[in-house]
């Protein structure tokens, strides 16, 4: 069943519905399979390893074998920060971001419902992922992008997978409003994370983390927050495994926003249970350049219930963390993803995080998503002839 998170009104799993018809609040899918942990044993490591927890018909899934991403221990950063650190590398998904998990479930649901067109507004990754999964399913795909604010790799993916890409003169929040209106007119099936089936896929990040840690929860999970779907989804995942008796503890959910786009951090600091939309969000991390996060209520609840924390980081801190992760651990991530590492560094520095904590930072998208940022952050290559003498002079000098 689908249930309103505010008034509790229930809806059927086959209803096309994005917000509660009674109170207007956001919805969640209720999923309580009766299985034991042993059913997962010997299955291939993709997010479908946990298929009993996915509310779709498993015989008809649309998949690119998403999930099953690496959980890399980061020894050098551990030495620097004095904590136990693992990084969940979501850039290893088929289109290079965690969005693939949600799209696999979302597009499967779209097929079950028998729709012929899907759509979204996006800061980039959602559109790249939707375009690929819609192509695989043979569905028409329409994506609305904020003009001039989508990283090159993501734009290339959305266009190349055959989506109808429309550039909106406005920001993400305005694009989302427009596409939601189209969805409400029945012109397309909306696959932004307001669609609760998206989060059902993304909750598998939480499943995988505790599975990989030997059915133990880390003390804390840190991740970047834009629309706040992912932090809500991961919390839902760990909570479902906790309620199923698969794990005995829960992680403190810790959300990081860019200073110029931090309505959730502000709401939490003011003790509110929902945000006040921010008119002109701005950050170098274009993926999380969002002023009116749709899943804010769920995220604020997750952070509160788990005893977690919300913090902001500056654009400079984001770019420094991105480079640090790339150069000390070999993990290349896009700026938004580096917000989790920047947040970790800031919270260890301000002693909000204890030195004996076991921490998982989720890095959400691949470095190549935003090649311009990467190239502009580096010294440009020297161009010379292929002459051994000149070459050896240069490499010894450097
Ligand atoms: C790399 O693609 O919102 O808090 O339209 O691409 O669940 O929104 C992207 C979000 C973090 C934030 N990291 O996740 C979109 C979009 C990366 C992202 C987020 C996004 P949410």
Distance between the termini: 62 Å
Largest sheet: 6 strands, mixed
* Total tally of structural domains: 3
Evaluate the radius of gyration. Answer: 21 Å
* Structural class designation: alpha/beta
* Structural shape: globular
Average pLDDT: 97
* CATH topology descriptor of the largest domain: Rossmann fold
Q: What is the CATH class name of the largest domain?
A: Alpha Beta
Number of strands: 13
Strand portion: 5-15%
Strand order of the largest sheet: 4-5-13-10-11-12
CATH architecture term of the largest domain: 3-Layer(aba) Sandwich
- Give the oligomer, counting copies of the same chain as homo and different chains as hetero: single chain
Low-confidence stretches: none
What ligands does this structure carry? ligand AN7
Number of helices: 14
H/E order of the elements? EEEEHEHEHEHEHEHHEHEHHEHHEHH
Percent of residues in helices: 25-40%
What can you tell me about this protein's structure?
This protein has 398 residues and is α/β, with parallel strands linked by helices. The protein folds into 3 domains: 1-30, no CATH class; 71-96 and 198-376, Rossmann fold (3-Layer(aba) Sandwich); 97-195, Rossmann fold, CATH 3.40.50.1100. It is built from 14 helices and 13 strands. It has a 6-stranded mixed β-sheet, with helices on both faces. Strand 1 (2-4) and strand 2 (10-11) form a beta hairpin. Helix 2 (99-113) crosses helix 6 and helix 8 (229-243) packs across helix 10. The model has no long low-confidence stretch (mean pLDDT 97). Residues 97, 122-126, 193, 224-230, 287-288, 334, 336-337, 364-365 line the site of ligand AN7.
């Amino acid at each position: 069943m689908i249930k309103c998170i505010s008034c509790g009104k229930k809806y059927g799993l086959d209803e096309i519905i994005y917000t509660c018809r009674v109170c207007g609040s956001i919805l969640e899918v209720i999923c309580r399979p009766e299985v034991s942990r042993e059913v997962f044993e010997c299955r291939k490591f993709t997010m479908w390893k946990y298929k009993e927890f996915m509310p779709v018909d498993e015989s008809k899934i649309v998949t690119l074998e998403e999930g099953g991403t690496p959980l890399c221990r980061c020894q050098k950063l551990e030495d620097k920060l004095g904590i136990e650190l693992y990084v969940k590398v979501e850039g290893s998904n088929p289109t290079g971001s965690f969005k693939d998990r949600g799209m696999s479930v979302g597009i499967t649901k779209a097929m079950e419902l028998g729709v012929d067109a899907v759509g979204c507004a996006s800061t980039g990754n959602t559109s790249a992922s939707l375009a690929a999964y819609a192509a695989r399913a043979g569905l028409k795909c329409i994506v609305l992008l904020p003009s001039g604010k989508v990283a090159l790799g993501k734009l290339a993916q959305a266009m190349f997978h055959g989506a109808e890409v429309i550039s909106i003169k406005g920001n993400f929040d305005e694009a989302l409003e427009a596409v939601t209106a189209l969805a409400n007119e029945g012109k397309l099936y909306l696959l932004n994370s307001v669609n609760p089936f998206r989060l059902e896929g993304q909750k598998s990040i939480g499943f995988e983390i505790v599975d990989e840690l030997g059915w133990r929860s880390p003390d804390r999970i840190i991740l970047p927050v834009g629309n706040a779907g992912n932090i809500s989804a991961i919390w839902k995942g760990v909570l479902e495994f906790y309620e199923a008796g698969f794990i005995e503890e829960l992680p403190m959910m810790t959300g990081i926003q860019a200073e110029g786009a931090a309505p959730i951090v502000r709401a939490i600091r003011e003790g509110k249970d929902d945000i006040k939309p921010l008119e002109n969000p701005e950050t170098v991390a274009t993926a999380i350049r969002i002023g009116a996060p749709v899943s804010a209520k769920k995220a604020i609840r997750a952070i509160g219930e788990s005893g977690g924390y919300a913090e902001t980081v500056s654009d400079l801190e984001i770019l420094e963390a991105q480079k640090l992760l790339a150069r000390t651990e070999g993990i290349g991530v896009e700026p938004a993803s580096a917000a989790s590492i920047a947040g970790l560094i800031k919270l260890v520095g301000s002693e909000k995080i204890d030195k004996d904590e076991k921490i998982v930072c989720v890095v959400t998208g691949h470095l190549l998503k935003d090649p311009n940022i990467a190239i502009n952050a580096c010294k440009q290559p020297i161009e010379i002839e292929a002459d051994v003498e000149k070459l050896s002079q240069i490499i010894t000098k450097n």
